[in-house]
Amino acid sequence: MSATISALPASPAKKRAQRRRIVGSGFWYIAVILVSISTVLPLVWTLSTSFKTESEALSGALNLLPRNPTVDNYAALFADGTFARYLVNSFILAIGGTITNVFFGSLAGYALAKLRFPGQGSVFATFLASMMVPAIVTMIPTFLVLRYLPLVGGNDLFGQGGVGMINSYAAVLVPFAAGAFAVFFMKQFFESLPDEIGDAARIDGASEFRIFLSIYFPLSTAGAAVLAVLTFQAGWNSFLWPLIALNNPDMYTVQVGLSAFINEYQTDYGPLMAGTIVSSLPALLVFIVAQKYIVQNFTGSAVK
């Protein structure tokens, strides 16, 4: 009897539903393929152009693979040491910005999540409100404040003889030392940790900073790692603010330095593409190294 029932043909409604599922799946597969191609193709084209000769890069030919591969563009990129200096500047600013943003953002997030003080809600609301203001709106006021703010230690220590903090590493690091997003992100993470741990440490006589540094901050490794990756990528890829705050070529970052290959009369596509590939590697490596912490953060959030 069961064999007879299984041998019966499917009803027209089931056939139509099956066809709709097949068509729908096919549509999504095609959409995913097209989006993947549109995302990957520019990256492949950039990598290919970095190995092309100048004449081939300017020929306008649509060949994806270079006819005569060459590493001359990479050699020209590092020939005079200027681009290497840009890399050093970018590493100093990206790493320094990551350390300050993660530490001070975590410190402020801990205070807003675990401490009770007058005006706590207003302070947090101010941080949230600042996230709604476009960064370009605050650039001019920030520039004027840094211009008249004296640099401790003198410009010879952190910069190249600018006015106030302008044209120094501090001009890029100080305004973003504790970003509103970092405070909000870490506050939400600290709120997920039990208060009883801190209460037990206070009974034992630990100070608030000791509780933060020795107990809560180590427990927030996953969240801090995600914030560090996001901060490093944002700092490494930053262009507009370093262009405004750093006016000495010796202080330029990679992203600002790449614009030197584009001038009024021509564009050096080969070195420009080679520099783009080189400048993409650090952010990619940081993401690969920290991806387990990112997965751990999202997994832990899902379980909670």
Automatic annotation (TrEMBL):
Family: Belongs to the binding-protein-dependent transport system permease family.
Name of the protein described by the UniProt record: Carbohydrate ABC transporter permease
GO CC entries: plasma membrane
Keyword Chloroplast: no
Subcellular location field: Cell membrane
Record has Transmembrane helix as a keyword: yes
Organism this protein belongs to: Cryobacterium cheniae
Transmembrane segments: 26-45, 91-112, 124-149, 169-190, 211-232, 269-290
Keywords on record: Cell membrane, Membrane, Transmembrane, Transmembrane helix, Transport
Membrane topology: Multi-pass membrane protein
Main location per the UniProt record: membrane
Domain ABC transmembrane type-1, first and last residues per copy: 87-290
Domain of life, per lineage: Bacteria
Biological processes, Gene Ontology terms: transmembrane transport
InterPro entries, sorted: MetI-like (IPR000515), MetI-like_sf (IPR035906)
SUPFAM superfamilies on file: MetI-like
